[in-house]
Design goal:
The structure is a single chain. By secondary structure, the chain is mainly alpha-helical. Among the domains are: 36 residues; 70 residues, Dna Ligase, domain 1. 63% of the residues lie in helices and 6% in strands. Strands 1-2 form a two-stranded antiparallel ribbon. The termini are far apart.
Length: 185
């Protein structure tokens, strides 16, 4: 009888330990999944440190700095929350390998992508492209086209400005009248 009681107690203890291990394993898996999801979500939607105006911070990026080094500098300046997250954002962005050393003024209301854009010099390139395209557009638009919108009487035909065919319809109708009168003779 004592041996059967002992077997039952050991069986219950064994089952309890297995259940405890499963509960701990499930809890760890759940925590890893939630943390991974949160981290993955933040990679693409990380909000700026402050909403609205924010504060300017002068940042010096030394020559030879890696994306992780830049992330540490930005975190120490209070511009980002997590340097590892910044590193992943750089790896997944189009600015990978394009961040330049130098002195920058960055704002706490900027997103990580905005900061990468500044450090990659993309905003300067966009401004230069806009200036070039506006210069080209103004030089193309400088050619004057003169449209004659006068009627046969020499007065300005106001309808011709809105409808380029308006002046020609009068001419066509007068031609039709002449054709009818010559056909009748």
């Amino acid at each position: 009888m004592l041996s059967t009681v002992r077997k039952i107690v050991l069986g219950i203890l064994n089952a309890s330990v297995r259940i405890a291990i499963l509960v701990i394993a499930f809890s760890l898996i759940k925590k890893v999944c939630l943390t991974s999801y949160d981290y993955g979500y933040r990679v693409f939607s990380e909000r700026p440190m402050t909403e609205g105006v924010g504060f300017d911070n002068e940042v010096v990026i030394p020559v030879g700095s890696s994306a992780m080094d830049i992330g540490k500098i930005l975190k120490n300046k209070g511009l980002i929350r997590d340097e590892k997250l910044f590193y992943i954002q750089v790896l997944l962005s189009s600015y990978r390998g394009k961040l330049n050393p130098g002195d920058y003024v960055l704002n706490t209301s900027m997103t990580a992508e905005d900061m990468m854009k500044v450090m990659a010099g993309a905003d300067r390139e966009e401004n230069e492209d806009e200036e070039e395209s506006s210069t080209a557009a103004s030089s193309e638009g400088s050619s004057n086209v003169t449209v004659d919108v006068t009627s046969e009487s020499g007065a300005i035909d106001e309808d011709a400005g809105d409808n380029p065919d308006a002046g020609s319809s009068e001419e066509e109708s007068s031609e039709e009248e002449e054709n009818k009168s010559t056909d009748g003779e």
